Fold this sequence. Notes:
globular
Amino acid sequence: MSELSQLIQxxxxxxxxxxxxxxxLKVIACEKQEGENSDKSVIDLGELYLEDDASFEAEPKExxxxxxWRVGSLLDNSIDVGEVYFIEGTDIFRLSVKNNETSIxxxxxxxxxxxxxxxxxxxxxxxxxxxxxxxxxxxxxxEHSQNLPETLKICVEQGAKKxxxxxxxxxxxxxxxxxLMELIKFDFYKNNEHLVxxxxx
Length: 201
């Protein structure tokens, strides 16, 4: 099988996988809305300003989609034991735990982080297990998922490859452009304990 044929097959598999993800997210969104009797509308991730898939060639080359949106590489790097990257507002933060001391660095501005209990828990578990998170991973707490389109736009632009987010925020991905699903792998957690289990068990 030629490389082109392999790329075509991989692209078809990705399309099928993304269709299934979107279908499941729609099911989750409906269940959540019914359970809460809420008429809150789902956020349109078209606000990410990612173009529809039609704007790409039928068979995009490897890395082509990613390069269209990349403007920086703050999140596209290796993560040490005890480190966690997160986004609050429009700022990217790195939380580090070393020698039982926690430090938080703002990588994009001079603002201070206000909510980081989950990220600190993850960093401490990383030290306890002597295991770092996957490279280019971002942890989003439920509080940091309030303005999801803008947050994910930052993730895409700065090279994040994987985002962990609360299951309740998954409904906001309904209607997201397929190109977003190709750029970032999403993983969902029910609560903090579930996230720790996913990351370190």
